[in-house]
Amino acid sequence: MLTIHADSRGHALVVEGERVVGTGVLGVLADGYPRARVRRWPGILTPGFVNLHGTELLEEAYHPDPREAGELGTEPLSGDALARLALDEVRWGGSARRGVQRMLAHGTVAVAGALCRPAVADAVRRTGLDVLPRTGRPGGVPSLDPLACGIPPQVPEPRERGSVASFAVFDVADEGELTERGASTCVATVIRGRLLYRRR
User: Fold this and answer.
1) How far apart are CA 13 and CA 26, in angstroms?
2) Which domains, from first to last, does the chain contain?
3) What InterPro entries does this protein map onto (predicted)?
4) pTM, entire model
């Protein structure tokens, strides 16, 4: 099914399956693909972010289940707090799924770092998030918001015809406002043509 994703500036991508098949101005693309469904998003279309702290956030931190909030809180647990939990593979898998959802809510389309726990690697693979290699540990502080970790964010190549249809939309006027307000302004994240996150 053909879908045109358009932002408030009139920039648009045409998606078919897992691929981008057209880019440009909404009006031109709508004329060129008259049978495509059009999704209009507030804000700006971007390639999304690569979260450089994939290992730290998914294999060295536990994302509590909402049912555990009274006991464990809602923020990721690491260090001594993580060690006290003595997690098994089932809980690691659940943590990774929740962590990935929180990453998607910040416009993440790929993570960097080795994922060695089978349950974690499987949870990431099922979403379609790209896992990129890295050398050593990045600087900064691991954060679900790639703009808040204290190092320059890594952004994939711009989406073009033939690219994998992975991108994010942020409810801001421009890139400057995105930098100022952060990635929590994300309203939608698409991974390989699938809308995996949409802000309610």
Assistant:
1) 8
2) 2-47+158-198 (2.30.40.10), 49-132 (no CATH)
3) Metal-dep_hydrolase_composite
4) 0.93
